[in-house]
């Protein structure tokens, strides 16, 4: 029983943090069209299993572990937390060891920091576990340490760092700048086309395309109505021409308008016409002037003289 209690006290508690990555189709899984990329090579489409294995190898790489250690901190990862770890560190401190010496371009402090970082990287890689099911597009991740918050931070940092690395690794260099420039050019062209359309509308008096189309449809309808009416009038005119042509064909060359027998009395007819004209003239002046007006008296005398003849 005492040995069991001693083992419970000395054996450190382990805390696991779990996560899962889904390798799905997207900008990182589908190769870009070579005509829309600045790369000189054409990507070959691989199977999904090879993509999952590639993602797993990148997660297990030393570069990922180093970035996670530098963000979380090597001192925090190497800090002893259990009783056994603290006891082991205390015993190790009593063992004499030489001070680190400069190595190449690195100073003694830089060598110490490098050793601490390498130890933290090794400890993180030992605590990391990856599991992939057969014919699956998911990767299960597990981080086991003696601190639950450390396990959580290590796993979340690993997932975030890998996502950034994944996007960077599968991105064509200079593509963002290229498409940004093309977007600006397209925007400038669209603005120029819009201004040209506005000027064309102003020059032609077009307020709106819809209203212009409606006006054109109304004009076309009126033209069609006028065309139908003109065709009807043309048919009527052709019928009238045919009727007049038939009448001309049946009309004699000479038509008697008046027949005079004997010697015409031209002088008497002329005098009667003159008398009639004098009477008309007298009536017109009588309506305008009084009875004693000189013009009216002269016309009356001339009318009396003509009547006596």
What does this structure look like?
It is a single chain. The protein is mostly helical. The protein has three domains: 2-34 and 45-172, no CATH class; 216-248; 270-308. The chain is built from eleven helices and three strands; from the N terminus they run H-E-H-H-H-H-H-E-E-H-H-H-H-H. The protein has a three-stranded antiparallel beta sheet. A hairpin with a 6-residue loop joins strand 2 (128-131) and strand 3 (138-145). Helix 3 (62-72) packs across helix 6 (108-127), helix 3 packs across helix 7 (148-169) and helix 10 (266-288) packs antiparallel against helix 11 (294-308).
Q: Short description, anyone?
A:
The protein has 309 residues and is mainly α. The protein has 3 domains: 2-34 and 45-172, no CATH class; 216-248; 270-308. The chain is 65% helix and 6% strand.
């Amino acid at each position: 029983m005492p040995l069991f209690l001693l083992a419970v006290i000395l054996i450190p508690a382990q805390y696991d943090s779990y996560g899962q990555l889904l390798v799905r189709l997207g900008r990182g899984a589908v190769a870009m069209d070579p005509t829309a990329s600045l790369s000189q090579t054409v990507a070959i489409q691989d199977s999904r299993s090879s993509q999952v294995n590639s993602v797993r190898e990148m997660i297990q790489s030393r570069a990922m572990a180093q970035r996670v250690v530098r963000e979380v901190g090597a001192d925090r990862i190497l800090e002893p937390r259990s009783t056994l770890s603290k006891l082991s560190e205390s015993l190790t401190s009593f063992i004499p060891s030489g001070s680190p010496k400069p190595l190449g371009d690195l100073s003694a402090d830089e060598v110490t920091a490098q050793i601490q970082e390498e130890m933290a990287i090794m400890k993180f890689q030992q605590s990391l576990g990856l599991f992939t099911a057969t014919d699956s597009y998911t990767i299960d991740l597990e981080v086991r340490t003696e601190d639950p918050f450390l396990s959580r931070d290590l796993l979340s940092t690993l997932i975030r760092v890998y996502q950034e690395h994944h996007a960077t690794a599968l991105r064509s260099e200079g593509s963002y700048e290229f498409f940004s420039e093309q977007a600006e050019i397209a925007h400038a062209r669209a603005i120029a086309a819009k201004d040209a359309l506005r000027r064309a509308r102003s020059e032609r008096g077009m307020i709106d395309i819809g209203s212009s189309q409606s006006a054109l449809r109304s004009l076309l309808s009126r033209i069609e109505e006028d065309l139908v009416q003109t065709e009807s009038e043309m048919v009527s005119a052709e019928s009238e021409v045919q009727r007049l042509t038939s009448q001309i064909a049946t009309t004699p060359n000479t038509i008697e308008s008046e027949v005079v027998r004997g010697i015409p009395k031209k002088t008497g007819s002329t005098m009667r016409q003159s008398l009639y004209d004098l009477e008309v003239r007298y009536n017109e002046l009588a309506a305008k002037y009084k009875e004693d007006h000189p013009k009216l008296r002269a016309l009356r005398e001339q009318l009396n003289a003509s009547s006596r003849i």
